[in-house]
Specification:
Layout (H helix, E strand, L loop, with lengths): L13 E10 L6 E8 L1 E6 L2 E6 L7 E3 L3 H6 L3 E10 L6 E8 L3
Antiparallel strand pairs: 1-6, 2-5, 2-7, 3-4, 3-6
Length: 101
């Protein structure tokens, strides 16, 4: 994947990012594919999908909260992310993947 170059520190340790994802269908084994530094919250169509502390050194697959799974729909979906980076590096990216059961 491409490495993003959007700086948000030191002026503000918080960043919010939105991404639209279009799904042909909603498989039952959907997971989040997230790369973050530091604390992150991910929302799907306005519903909290996951929240994680600290950072990752690469992409990690996270389960999606049941309420956020119900919010996924065929067609356009909005993923919103909030990251709070108070030290060290900074990065944030997310995707939806169909993971093995």
């Amino acid at each position: 994947p491409k490495v993003p170059h959007t700086a948000w520190m030191p002026a503000n340790p918080d960043i919010w990012v939105r991404r639209e994802v279009t799904l042909d269908s909603v498989p039952s084994n959907v997971r989040l594919f997230v790369f973050h530094d530091d604390d992150v919250e991910v929302y799907i169509n306005g519903v909290l999908a996951t929240t994680r502390k600290n950072y990752t050194s690469g992409f990690v697959i996270y389960d999606i909260e049941p309420a956020a799974m119900k919010a996924l729909k065929k067609g356009k979906n909005v993923i919103a992310m909030h990251c709070n980076s108070t030290r060290g590096g900074q990065h944030l990216d997310v995707g939806i993947v169909a993971a093995g059961k």
